[in-house]
Write a structure and sequence with these properties.
Low-potential electron donor to a number of redox enzymes. The chain is α/β, with parallel strands linked by helices. It is built from four helices and six strands. The longest helix has 18 residues.
Length: 147
Amino acid sequence: MTLAKIVYASLTGNTEEIADVVAEALEEQDITVEINECTQVDAMDFEEADICIVATYTYDDGNLPDEIMDFYDELLELDLTGKTYGVVGSGDSFYDLYCIAVDKFDEAFAKIGATKGAENVKIELACEEDDIVKLEEFAKKVVEKAL
Protein backbone atom coordinates (compact mmCIF):
# COMPACT_ATOMS: atom_id res chain seq x y z
CA MET A 1 0.00 0.00 0.00
CA THR A 2 1.16 3.53 -0.77
CA LEU A 3 2.41 5.47 2.26
CA ALA A 4 2.22 9.25 2.58
CA LYS A 5 4.00 11.09 5.37
CA ILE A 6 2.88 14.60 6.23
CA VAL A 7 5.06 16.78 8.44
CA TYR A 8 3.73 20.12 9.60
CA ALA A 9 4.64 23.21 11.61
CA SER A 10 1.75 25.17 13.04
CA LEU A 11 1.70 28.05 15.49
CA THR A 12 -1.97 29.08 15.41
CA GLY A 13 -3.51 25.81 14.23
CA ASN A 14 -4.10 27.02 10.66
CA THR A 15 -1.35 24.89 9.13
CA GLU A 16 -2.29 21.86 11.21
CA GLU A 17 -5.80 22.17 9.77
CA ILE A 18 -4.33 22.35 6.26
CA ALA A 19 -2.32 19.19 6.94
CA ASP A 20 -5.45 17.45 8.26
CA VAL A 21 -7.44 18.35 5.12
CA VAL A 22 -4.67 16.93 2.91
CA ALA A 23 -4.44 13.79 5.07
CA GLU A 24 -8.17 13.17 4.80
CA ALA A 25 -8.11 13.70 1.02
CA LEU A 26 -5.25 11.20 0.70
CA GLU A 27 -7.03 8.64 2.88
CA GLU A 28 -10.12 8.95 0.67
CA GLN A 29 -7.87 7.72 -2.17
CA ASP A 30 -6.83 4.63 -0.16
CA ILE A 31 -3.44 6.06 0.77
CA THR A 32 -2.01 5.17 4.19
CA VAL A 33 -1.19 8.46 5.94
CA GLU A 34 1.12 9.27 8.83
CA ILE A 35 0.93 12.86 10.03
CA ASN A 36 3.35 14.38 12.54
CA GLU A 37 4.30 17.72 13.99
CA CYS A 38 7.81 18.62 12.77
CA THR A 39 9.53 18.38 16.15
CA GLN A 40 8.29 14.81 16.63
CA VAL A 41 10.01 13.26 13.56
CA ASP A 42 13.25 13.27 11.62
CA ALA A 43 13.52 14.17 7.96
CA MET A 44 14.92 10.74 7.18
CA ASP A 45 11.50 9.31 8.07
CA PHE A 46 10.55 10.46 4.55
CA GLU A 47 12.82 7.69 3.20
CA GLU A 48 10.13 5.17 4.23
CA ALA A 49 7.35 7.02 2.40
CA ASP A 50 6.16 7.03 -1.21
CA ILE A 51 4.67 10.51 -0.84
CA CYS A 52 6.35 13.25 1.22
CA ILE A 53 4.37 16.35 2.15
CA VAL A 54 5.38 19.37 4.20
CA ALA A 55 2.83 21.84 5.53
CA THR A 56 4.36 24.98 7.00
CA TYR A 57 3.56 28.53 7.81
CA THR A 58 5.83 31.46 7.04
CA TYR A 59 6.95 33.35 10.09
CA ASP A 60 7.14 37.14 10.06
CA ASP A 61 8.53 38.51 6.78
CA GLY A 62 9.75 35.41 4.98
CA ASN A 63 11.30 33.21 7.64
CA LEU A 64 10.99 29.49 8.19
CA PRO A 65 9.45 28.79 11.60
CA ASP A 66 12.09 28.09 14.24
CA GLU A 67 10.60 24.71 15.07
CA ILE A 68 11.02 23.39 11.51
CA MET A 69 14.59 24.64 10.89
CA ASP A 70 16.30 21.43 12.05
CA PHE A 71 13.92 19.34 9.92
CA TYR A 72 14.66 21.57 6.90
CA ASP A 73 18.43 21.23 7.39
CA GLU A 74 18.15 17.43 7.74
CA LEU A 75 15.98 17.27 4.61
CA LEU A 76 18.71 18.89 2.53
CA GLU A 77 21.06 16.01 3.42
CA LEU A 78 18.76 13.30 2.01
CA ASP A 79 18.39 11.72 -1.41
CA LEU A 80 14.68 11.32 -2.09
CA THR A 81 14.98 10.24 -5.70
CA GLY A 82 11.92 8.19 -6.57
CA LYS A 83 9.72 9.89 -3.97
CA THR A 84 6.82 12.20 -4.84
CA TYR A 85 6.48 15.40 -2.84
CA GLY A 86 4.12 18.27 -2.26
CA VAL A 87 4.23 21.45 -0.20
CA VAL A 88 1.34 23.42 1.28
CA GLY A 89 1.16 26.16 3.83
CA SER A 90 -0.36 29.24 5.31
CA GLY A 91 0.72 32.83 5.33
CA ASP A 92 -0.38 36.41 5.68
CA SER A 93 -0.37 38.59 2.56
CA PHE A 94 0.33 41.58 4.81
CA TYR A 95 3.99 40.56 4.45
CA ASP A 96 5.94 41.15 1.25
CA LEU A 97 7.25 37.57 1.14
CA TYR A 98 3.91 35.75 1.22
CA CYS A 99 4.18 32.04 2.08
CA ILE A 100 7.88 31.97 1.14
CA ALA A 101 8.52 29.02 3.48
CA VAL A 102 6.41 26.90 1.11
CA ASP A 103 8.69 27.89 -1.76
CA LYS A 104 11.82 27.15 0.29
CA PHE A 105 10.64 23.60 0.98
CA ASP A 106 9.70 23.17 -2.68
CA GLU A 107 13.24 24.14 -3.68
CA ALA A 108 14.72 21.80 -1.05
CA PHE A 109 12.74 18.80 -2.31
CA ALA A 110 13.77 19.55 -5.91
CA LYS A 111 17.46 19.73 -4.86
CA ILE A 112 17.36 16.29 -3.24
CA GLY A 113 15.86 14.52 -6.23
CA ALA A 114 12.18 14.16 -5.31
CA THR A 115 9.51 14.52 -7.99
CA LYS A 116 6.97 17.30 -7.61
CA GLY A 117 3.48 15.85 -7.42
CA ALA A 118 1.42 19.04 -7.59
CA GLU A 119 1.78 22.78 -7.56
CA ASN A 120 2.26 24.35 -4.13
CA VAL A 121 -0.88 25.47 -2.33
CA LYS A 122 -0.69 28.68 -0.31
CA ILE A 123 -3.54 29.56 2.03
CA GLU A 124 -4.26 33.03 3.36
CA LEU A 125 -4.38 32.47 7.12
CA ALA A 126 -7.14 29.87 7.79
CA CYS A 127 -8.84 27.45 5.36
CA GLU A 128 -12.00 28.61 3.66
CA GLU A 129 -14.27 26.38 1.55
CA ASP A 130 -12.46 27.19 -1.72
CA ASP A 131 -9.11 26.43 -0.05
CA ILE A 132 -10.36 22.99 0.97
CA VAL A 133 -11.23 22.30 -2.67
CA LYS A 134 -7.70 23.37 -3.70
CA LEU A 135 -6.15 21.09 -1.08
CA GLU A 136 -8.28 18.14 -2.16
CA GLU A 137 -7.23 18.69 -5.78
CA PHE A 138 -3.60 18.97 -4.62
CA ALA A 139 -3.90 15.58 -2.89
CA LYS A 140 -5.47 14.01 -5.98
CA LYS A 141 -2.64 15.23 -8.23
CA VAL A 142 0.06 14.08 -5.83
CA VAL A 143 -1.43 10.59 -5.76
CA GLU A 144 -1.76 10.47 -9.55
CA LYS A 145 1.92 11.40 -9.89
CA ALA A 146 3.02 8.87 -7.25
CA LEU A 147 1.19 5.87 -8.73
